[in-house]
Hints:
Elements: E1 8-10, E2 17-19, E3 27-32, H1 37-42, E4 51-57, E5 63-69
Antiparallel strand pairs: 1-2, 3-5, 4-5
Amino acid sequence: MESLTRGSMACPVCGTEASVGLPRSTTDPIVTSEPSPDLDAAYAGDGSGRQKRRQFRCPNGHSLYVYFEF
Length: 70
Ligand SMILES: [Zn+2]
C-alpha cells in the first residue's frame, strides 16, 4: 500500500498516478471514481471536522474522490 501523504495515488479508472494533496496525518483514505452516498453519509462529519472528502483529477481527466480522516 502506498501512502497518500506522498502526494500521488493511482486513478481508480485508468491507474495513472494522480497528484493529490492530503494532510500528512491522513489515515485510512478511501478513493472512488464517483461520489458514494454511503461514504458521504459516513464522512459527513462526526462533529470533529476531521473527516473530509476531496476531489482530484488524474492526468486523463478522471475524477478521484478521496474520503479520509486526518
Ligand atoms: Zn484516470
